[in-house]
């Protein structure tokens, strides 16, 4: 019975994404915006979490030098974030079914010199990012923009048929998938071959997997993985983020992060804070482009709305 349900789920998902991909390109943004606003209404729990998250850090973000957002309140920022989620979902549907070439061709790439400098070290590369903008688009565009294959760390879907379908779609764009089970060993294997890893490290982890730091002014658990790989293999860690800039997307690559290498508890926390600060800075500059609907501060004293 479970297998039949899985097959039905996969069929529905495929048909939905296929129909969305067939829509004229001029309709995509309008449909995506409407879909995002509909999600905001239907998925009430996530809307509450997003608004609560923003409300708790809004004063902190406003106090930072990179803040330029003119939306006055948490509800407005959350609404715009849902609009962006809907648009990204429609864009990914088009990409997965091979109708997104124009979208990739319009991407503006900034900071390629930082990528070139990191690759020149010959030790592989970690692209460090978060659930920002259309992060799937950034991964899928990597080969066309930079000419390199990226191995993306992802969670395996519970539905094996759906998982196989999504994996096939990702590999169409020369990407590889590393699943979180046994991920560290597989990441090290790729990096030792001078490969490129894509890491999304902006969600809460279990205490045994990370360090307790301040993130947007609130205590949060953050992963040690990027720091661990950098220390063990000497691999450069380069922040990279994607955001919508007018009528197109922009991918911005930043200089390699510098870690202290201090192996004390305080040293680990300081190095984790280094990469977390890069994500913080992006969110402060582009608050409507972050995925506020996850509970980033759970297990660290977060009040549950």
How far apart the termini lie comes to 36 Å
Shape summary: globular
Largest sheet: 7 strands, mixed
Which class best fits the helix and strand makeup?
alpha/beta
User: What's the pLDDT, averaged over the residues?
Assistant: 90
Uncertain stretches: none
What is the element string, with H for helices and E for strands? HHHHHEHEHHEHEHEEEHEEH
* SS field, number of helical segments: 12
Strand content: 15-25%
**Portion of residues within helices:** 40-55%
Number of strands: 9
Structural domain count: 1
Describe what this molecule looks like in 3D.
The chain is an alpha/beta fold and 305 residues long. It has one domain. The chain has twelve helices and nine strands. It has helices spanning 2-22, 25-42, 44-62, 74-96, 101-105, 112-119, 135-140, 142-146, 160-171, 183-192, 225-233, 265-285; strands at 108-110, 125-129, 150-154, 176-179, 196-200, 210-215, 218-223, 237-245, 248-253. A seven-stranded mixed β-sheet has the order 1-9-8-2-5-3-4, sandwiched between helices. Strands 6-7 form a two-stranded antiparallel ribbon. Helix 9 links the parallel strand 3 (150-154) and strand 4 (176-179). The longest helix has 23 residues, at 74-96. The two termini are 36 Å apart. The model has no long low-confidence stretch (mean pLDDT 90).
């Amino acid at each position: 019975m479970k297998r039949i349900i899985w097959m039905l789920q996969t069929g529905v998902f495929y048909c939905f994404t296929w129909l969305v991909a067939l829509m004229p390109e001029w309709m995509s943004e309008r449909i995506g915006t409407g879909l995002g606003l509909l999600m905001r209404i239907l998925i009430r729990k996530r809307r509450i979490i997003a608004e609560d998250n923003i409300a708790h850090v809004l004063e902190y973000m406003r106090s930072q030098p990179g803040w330029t957002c003119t939306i006055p309140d948490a509800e407005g920022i959350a609404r715009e974030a849902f609009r962006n989620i809907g648009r990204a979902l429609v864009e990914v549907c088009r990409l997965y079914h091979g109708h997104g070439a124009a979208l990739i061709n319009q991407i503006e790439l900034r900071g390629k010199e930082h990528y070139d400098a990191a690759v020149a070290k010959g030790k592989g590369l970690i692209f460090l990012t978060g659930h920002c903008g259309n992060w799937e688009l950034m991964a899928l565009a990597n080969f066309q923009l930079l000419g390199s294959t990226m191995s993306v760390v992802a969670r395996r879907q519970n539905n094996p048929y759906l998982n196989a379908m999504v994996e096939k779609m990702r590999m169409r764009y020369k990407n590889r998938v590393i699943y979180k089970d046994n991920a560290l060993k597989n990441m090290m294997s790729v990096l030792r071959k001078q490969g490129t890893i894509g890491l999304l490290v902006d969600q809460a982890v279990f205490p045994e997997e990370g360090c307790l730091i301040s993130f947007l002014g609130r205590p949060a658990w953050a992963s040690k993985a990027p720091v661990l790989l950098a220390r063990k293999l000497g691999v450069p860690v380069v922040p990279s983020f994607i955001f919508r800039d007018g009528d197109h997307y922009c991918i911005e690559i930043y200089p390699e992060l510098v870690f202290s290498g201090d192996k004390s508890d305080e040293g680990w926390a300081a190095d984790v804070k280094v990469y977390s600060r890069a994500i913080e800075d992006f969110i402060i500059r582009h608050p409507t482009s972050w995925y506020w609907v996850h509970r980033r501060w759970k297990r660290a004293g977060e009040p549950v709305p």
